[in-house]
Task: structure prediction
Amino acid sequence: MFMEKRLTVALVAHDAMKHDLAEWVAWNWEKLLSHRLVCTGTTGRIVATTLMERRGKDSANARFDITMLKSGPLGGDQQLGAMIANNEIDVLVFFWDPMSAQPHDVDVKALLRLATLYNVPTAINRSSADFIISSSLMAHADYKPVIKDYTSYIERNVK
Result:
């Protein structure tokens, strides 16, 4: 028997993708309620509203754990990046808009770079988010991602 595991799941969406993320949250709300959620800015308010609407239909799930960061362009992406670097995020769901430039594109790139560097499972669209949330590793395994040891890289650049 496996114990259910609470993960910290970060949810982020560009403006044009917030509706898609809200629909995804509405579809997966029961699974999400068993985890800690971290959201940037407006996305967090949308996620909270969606979860409140859904949980109202099922009073057995009366609570959810959500942390709201600043808006992405106002530093939320950096706050989330720091959480990733401190091993505080287990999964990143980031519905980004591939069709329009963002004023904070460098922040977005840095966030995705950190998620890759620290081997955080990352979903960038509904399909990849569906695969991650439906994985048995999401709830029933004591999965610990392998983080590459960058000691030799750091030592090489210090000399």
The domain at 8-158 is CATH 3.40.50.1380 (Rossmann fold). The first helix runs from residue 18 to 33.
